[in-house]
Write a structure and sequence with these properties.
Strand content: under 5%
CATH class of the largest domain: Mainly Alpha
Order of helices and strands: HHHHHHHHHHH
CATH architecture of the largest domain: Orthogonal Bundle
CATH topology of the largest domain: Helix Hairpins
Largest sheet: none
Distance between the termini: 69 Å
Shape: globular
Number of strands: 0
Helix content: over 70%
Oligomer: single chain
């Protein structure tokens, strides 16, 4: 095999590995040279095409519907026995403990994101959303209020929206700055 053929053969697995972010993290260049691994990578790449993902998710309920149902469950568990319900136990400890637990879960989620561990990131994200709902219940916030706020912000530049929010409290306090003290 000539130099050119060897170079092409060596580049082919690298291109295959580069097709998915997950494969970059999991597989080495050497592993990608194995025929079975290449076959799995091709199948995974094909499965990740947007049309296939959309079709796979077509039977999945909307995120808002899932969150609404979970909020209702946590709201009902507020009255449950703290010895038998995790939600009731958290809520019985007060907002400070609820907020602390939410923060812990958020940090764990970020750690998994930085580590590139997608499966753990998905699991930790679910924990964060659950604990966010517990915060909402403890604070008396209903999901519909959050959905309305998100709808209001839709189509607004994040930079413009943040700038508008930063000025409201400072003006109310009579401060000349746009920075929140």
């Amino acid at each position: 095999m000539g130099k050119s053929a060897k170079r092409k053969a060596a580049e082919k697995p690298r291109k295959l590995v580069a097709r998915t972010a997950a494969s970059k993290a999991v597989l080495s260049k050497e592993a990608a040279r194995k025929p079975k691994v290449r076959k799995v990578l091709k199948a995974a790449t094909k499965a990740l095409k947007p049309k296939r993902v959309k079709a796979a998710l077509s039977g999945v309920p909307s995120a808002a519907a899932v969150m609404d149902r979970l909020w209702q469950v946590v709201q009902e568990r507020r009255k449950a026995d703290p010895e038998t319900s995790h939600s009731a136990r958290l809520l019985s400890r007060g907002m400070a403990k609820v907020a602390q637990k939410f923060g812990e879960e958020a940090v764990e989620c970020l750690i998994e994101a930085v580590a590139g561990n997608q499966a753990a990131l998905v699991a930790e994200s679910a924990d964060v959303l659950y604990h966010l709902i517990v915060v909402w219940v403890a604070a008396g916030v209903e999901p519909s209020e959050v959905w309305a706020e998100l709808t209001r912000r839709e189509g607004i530049s994040g930079i413009a929206e943040k700038a508008a929010r930063a000025q409201v409290p400072t003006r109310a306090l009579g401060l000349a700055t746009t920075k929140i003290p």
